[in-house]
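Hey, resending since the last one bounced:
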Amino acid sequence: PAVPQELEVPVSPRQSQPRHAYADEGEALPEQEEAETMAEEENEQDRQEMFRRLDTARHRELGEDATPADFRDVDPDEEITADVEDNGEEADEDTPPPLSPAQAQRIWDELLDELYRSGARRVETSTLTEWLTEVQRKRPFLYRQTDRWEGQGWIARRPDADGWDLVGSPLERAHV
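The structure tokens again:
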């Protein structure tokens, strides 16, 4: 069937080729420039969001124990040269295996018992943060343990100062 003349649309050879085929090398099309600009802006926004999340995580994880070096910017292009294990610590063959939660809790109970039996009637937050290294734990463990000890009546929070009063020992069968 013949196509009526009024429906035929003349196509120039330039229109039949993609626009990029006629762009000179090094000459970017307006759409291409806009896409590149948008990609750069999006990358910068992603980078800023990464730094914001990193800063938030540092504050949450390190808390009052943070040092200025902990807050320096991380270079995302820096090559990591040390062997890294899944938990983010450097590989060290001399490192003992991590304690189970029950083992860590038992060690903390023993440390509190030892402190109580020594005649101390108060435990400071600084003492507990030192104990964290002995059980290879972070601050959330400290908070859970002090809540558990308070619940059991072995310590009582001091409203006027940092730390707790020692009321009993977790290793004594009956405490007052």
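The longest helix spans residues 30-62.

Sorry for the duplicate.
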